[in-house]
Amino acid sequence: MPAAPEFEIAGRRIAHDCPPYIVAELSANHLGKLDHALKTIDAAAACGADAIKLQTYTADTITLDHDGPEFVIPHGSWKGRTLHDLYREAHTPWEWHETLFSHARDQGLHVFSSPFDASAVDLLEDLKAPAYKIASFEIVDLPLIERCAATGKPLIISTGMANLGEIEAAVTAARQAGDGGLCLLHCISAYPAPIADADLMTMPHLGAAFGTVFGLSDHTPGTAVSVAATALGARLIEKHFTLDRADGGPDAEFSLNPEEMKRLVGDCRDAYEALGQVSFNPRGSERANIAFRRSLYAVEDIAAGEGFTARNVRSIRPGHGLPPGALGAVLGSKARTAIARGTPLSHSLIDYD
Questions:
Q1: Taken in order 57, 62, 65, 69, is the CA torsion positive or negative?
Q2: Structure confidence by residue, pLDDT tens digits, 239-250
Q3: What are 103-146's pLDDT values in tens digits?
Q4: Which of 103, 293, 313, 315 has its CA 20 to 30 A from that of 148?
Q5: All residues at 6 or more sequence positions from 325 whose CB lies less than 8 Å from its CB, including other chains
Q6: Which structural domains are found in the chain, ordered by start?
């Protein structure tokens, strides 16, 4: 059989038999303030996240400064804004990157980014990014995928909006250009995404179809979908993170605050631990309670030679007597000796002849 899929980020192994790797997505939640970004990194570390993720682009590397209809967002949280205006507000200034990378590492977090063009990859290579994330909208940008894969670093690809053919093309491009490892994230590219659209059953199929570790880029409200994804095998969970949704910003509506992120981290790891292994034997925590299962007891005083009946023998708790399944054989038999009420029945007390 082929080896189970796995990959590593900065020496951290990510595989089916590992706890979920939790990525806090900074995105635009820095609100244009470096100090705010640094505080958000501190909070992500305090919540127990494994990594902080940035986005590396400028408005001019991702779109045009144009107000034609196709450059205006028609619906959702960003309705009416031009792409250029949105990305000018949301981008993480390139001159911040070195400080953000250094600070995240000092806090014990892995730090990497979603690049949106080759120049962003060059910047991130200079900063020794340990991995690259391909955003769902960029899954069709095969040259970008090839550029990232050619670094030899692991790739994490969000599959939002993509059909199987597009995912296959992206996976093929990544594997032909590099061998740093691959993780596919199921994703609903709506902001926020309705829980009813999550379709988490897609994830195991995604992993099986392409032989990869799989996970979830989660834009739904709250933490429940990420926890459910962990139970279904997701081993990388990415969630947008903000200090306070009331601070506003383009991503605030679908971001977790610190209290929620801490709960997500704990609940996802608990969900993984709860999966355990297939077992049909009593666990250590329940062995002591076996004594309190039902068994056969004398519920009246029974004289030697007296027959056992439904009146003087019953299945009750605790479980020190014969199993309840033996009742048919016991009824109609006789007591070999006198038996006091409250005595657990055993074969030595019964004359089956």
A1: negative
A2: 999 999 999 988
A3: 999 999 999 999 999 999 999 999 999 999 999 999 999 999 99
A4: 103
A5: none
A6: 8-275 (3.20.20.70), 287-351 (3.90.1210.10)
